[in-house]
Amino acid sequence: MRICFILNPTSGTNRTQDVPALLTRYATAAGADFEIQATQYAGHAEELARRAATQGYRVVVAVGGDGTVNEVARGLLGTAAALGIVPRGSGNGLARHLRLPLDLPGAVRRVCQPTFQRIDVGRINGRPFFCTAGLGFDAHVSKMFARAGTRGLSTYIKVSLREYRRYQPVPVQIELNNQVLETSCYVLAFANAAQYGNNAYIAPRADIQDGLLDVCLIDALPLTRAVRVGVGLALGTLATSGAAVYHTSHHIRVRTEHTLGFHVDGDYVADAAAFEVELEHLALEVAV
Ligand SMILES: Nc1ncnc2c1ncn2[C@@H]1O[C@H](COP(=O)(O)OP(=O)(O)OP(=O)(O)O)[C@@H](O)[C@H]1O
């Protein structure tokens, strides 16, 4: 079994580690037949992953955070290669959901001796996502976070608190399961996996193999509710807290009068006024 590691050298906060040397040491110790390729620019991991799949690598491993996982996984859709993950981001949502080791030696050992399973894949306006996608405040925070200059959890919390004071919900029309909901949207999250990353459980009951997205709507976020949402995210109790409304569906349409930002797997993509969200059942093989 041949393994290709695709390393994002800009991921994570610990830049002092010689990651290629560590990958080499642990993969050699596990007896793997492997190659390591480093990305040179944003988007490169998708091209490298697709090429590796064409070259017959059985497992193509994203070495990075959820942004790198998204790119590698995108490149593997429709191929015979499986996605592996060596988590090096700050959130690591998909790795955590799949209960993969979060330490480098453990994660390398796992991808070298994996079992295989398939997971669902979401799409929002054609863009694949594997963990979560969303509209509203979380996408707005991703946009501001990308502009912040520094990364990590503390920057994320700082940006969220600053933007919380300014952000207002917008009216939306949501179509799902033959119903039309006229509501306002502070956060509308489409969860394939249960968490955003960092064990922040936006949809604690989400099952990544059930053919359905868990749709989480928070229509407004006054301070008292914000506290309940924060506690619910941290404890995995949001679904029973009454602070959010949930639906499950495999096809959702959303319209807004004004444009709203959307993110995939925590990375801001663009603003739009119409959204088509779909789920492809078991469309990606993962090495777990
Ligand atoms: N060589 C590169 N130079 C610049 N950007 C890159 C490079 N390779 C990948 N990227 C971009 O870096 C972005 C961030 O990567 P990733 O999400 O893996 O790390 P992170 O932000 O540290 O992790 P997390 O999202 O968990 O905080 C990705 O969306 C990817 O497009």
UniProtKB/TrEMBL annotation:
Q: Which UniProt keywords apply?
A: ATP-binding, Kinase, Lipid biosynthesis, Lipid metabolism, Magnesium, Metal-binding, Nucleotide-binding, Phospholipid biosynthesis, Phospholipid metabolism, Transferase
Cofactors named for this entry = Mg(2+)
- Determine if Hydrolase is one of this entry's keywords: no
User: Where's the DAGKc domain?
Assistant: 1-128
Is this entry keyworded Lipid biosynthesis?
Answer: yes
Classification via InterPro entries: ATP-NAD_kinase_N, Diacylglycerol/lipid_kinase, Diacylglycerol_kinase_cat_dom, Lipid_Phosphate_FormReg, NAD/diacylglycerol_kinase_sf, YegS/DAGK_C
What PANTHER family does the annotation carry? Answer: LIPID KINASE YEGS (PTHR12358:SF106), SPHINGOSINE KINASE (PTHR12358)
- The name on file for this protein is DAGKc domain-containing protein
Q: What is the lineage of its organism?
A: Bacteria, Pseudomonadati, Bacteroidota, Cytophagia, Cytophagales
